[in-house]
Amino acid sequence: MTDNQDHRGDVAGLLLAAGGGRRLGGRPKALLEHRGRPLVEHAVGVLRAAGCGRVHVVLGAGADDVRKCAELDDCVLVENPDWAEGMGTSLRAGLESLAGTGVRAALVSLVDQPGIGPAAVARVLSAYEDENSLVSAAYDGQRGHPVLFGAAHWAGIAATATGDRGARAYLKEHAASVRLVECADVAEPYDIDTAADLRHLE
User: Fold this and answer.
1) Residue 69 belongs to what H/E stretch?
2) How far is Cα 39 from Cα 76, in angstroms, rounded to an integer?
3) Average pLDDT score over residue span 19-35
């Protein structure tokens, strides 16, 4: 176990917040309200509370509205013009934005999973060792989010991130190297995808 504070500058939070909420009537997920503020603000706050000093946020659907409505002044905002093609394009855009920053790993989270709080994110962050790290939260043994990708893996992930699969193919291919960190006791990995899921928002 490493101390999160020791590696605060090594690991950046990468929040994927470009989704258009197709099954929510086209409401950008970043702007769904949670605890009185846009969901994207809540998700950034979780990354900060867990120990991520630098946070990059990938925007897509309703990007201009998100910039106006959400307080993200302390984040690096990355616009993904190809967001409609799927999460893979946002992951590629986010990793590209981190190139050259000196960051050695990216801790990737999704804007539409408010049931995953700082405790789970901090656990994944604490498993970071170096740029070769591959770490994933697990829920009853099943891989989920957030995930941490050491910089040594970014090129390989970007090459295989297509459609809505994100890094799934890469993680499957490198399963033996992925460290799973059980988080079911501190988080619920549900997604806000449909109108029925809106009950999870407060």
Assistant:
1) helix 63-69
2) 17
3) 88
